[in-house]
Amino acid sequence: MKKYITLISSTLLVVLSASCYQTSKPINYRGYIVDNSIKSKVNQKVKSSSAGILSSMDMKMFENDSIVLDTYSAGKSIDECMTFALLEGDTINITGFAGMFAGVGYQIALFKDTCVVRHFAKSDMEVYKLHENDSLDLGVAVLCKTYTLNLASKPTFKKGDVVEGIIELTSDEYYEVANGNQKKCKMQLTGYFKTMPLESMEDEYNKIKNKLKDKW
User: Fold this and answer.
1) What global pTM score does this model have?
2) Could you tell me which of 181, 177, 104 has the C-alpha nearest to residue 134?
3) How much is the average pLDDT of 127-151?
């Protein structure tokens, strides 16, 4: 139970703090594809545990135009990624995240017939910036040069809905500065996800609060 609360609380922190990151603009709205045939592939890549539903990612990470990580070639996906989704009015916000207090992932904002997809990176230190002359921040949320979002079924945008799909993206460039060295970064990522039944931010907050209350 403690592990579950820690995972959900950490992911909520990612969702809430992402709005404070340096964010690329303008927003580019594009549609998504509904394709029921992806359902079996998604089910192979996600699993249930005491912590909820865990997903997986493949990624190719570039630093100064050189590949520094490539799980596609290695044939070994990054498993046990956190996936979290919230229903906010007529919008479903999905976050996929590899890591805990530092790591990388994606954010999907689903609307009726369109979506916005961002890659994000976060750290517990101020090491990221969107543009070369920006000041450093704890994280960046970067729009994508290209992305394709496939969903197994069309969302109903109602509480209790489960959303599953595959997101493929290539991010715009951003920067990371560590030990005085600046690196230009870019991410190619494929994420496989299935959400828990959708709840509002208030419902999720109250659920965690009650669990903490019961525990202590």
Assistant:
1) 0.84
2) 177
3) 94
